[in-house]
Write a structure and sequence with these properties.
- It is a single chain.
- By secondary structure, the protein is of the alpha/beta class.
- The protein has a single domain, classed as Rossmann fold, CATH 3.40.50.300.
- It is about 40% helix and about 20% strand.
- Helix 6 runs parallel beside helix 7.
- The radius of gyration is 18 Å and the shape is globular.
- The two termini are about 20 Å apart.
Amino acid sequence: MNTTEQILPKVKYTIAVSSGKGGVGKSTVAVNLAAALIKEGYKTGLIDADIYGPSIPTMLDAVNERPKLVKINDKNRLLPVVRYGIKMMSIGFLVDPNEAVVWRGPMASSALKQFMGDVEWDELDFLLYDMPPGTGDIQLTLTQSIPLTGAVIVTTPQEISLIDARKGAKMFEKVNVPVLGIIENMSYYTNSDGSKEYIFGKGGGKKLADELKINFLGEIAVNTAIRLGGDEGKPIVLRNPDSVEAGQFTEIAKNMAEDIINKAKLHPKLPVIEI
């Protein structure tokens, strides 16, 4: 029995949504991918692995929610909070939202392990992890605790972001986690006349994907509605489903899911899918 079957016996695929640095919209991408997967008919969960900066409760309108404690087979288990069909767990549900989480690395890593082992996740097609930025304890804890199906790297187009995205991809490579691809966020702004303005540069994510010989999963435009969706707790995929940006998220999620499932059919006995 592999580690995934022991810790998350009812979860088919586990995906880390990661970034080399903060401020690139990783959490926004994670919640919209989760919402898009739900819309596509997949049973989806989301773990807020950013222990020090949990934003998932706000982005999914669940700040005041608390997970229920139940007893299953004589063991205490937490039930994930559910919003828009997404099952989720975050340290933000367990601590005062106005207080900082001042923990050393081992405590944060222990909390993440509890989110996997002490939560009744039920049957899921995909479990996404909104990772903290960088390449520290949480990333290592996750990759050492369960075999990840893969990771997606979120970046913005400018070189200063690509430098850290490259490091993030290399980190997953070193711990034998397949990088499913790169998502370029804040790719461009659409002016009122329909023209595109590449505020942060053009094509950086695609160039990095080509350099690393991994998939370029797609680009997401800059739009005020995306920010409002996060602030108001309803992702743009659900808030403005007919928007260009919602379509971009949905297309990325759909293609990512189909790619993972197709590869799993080729390697049904492998705990980690070969890319």
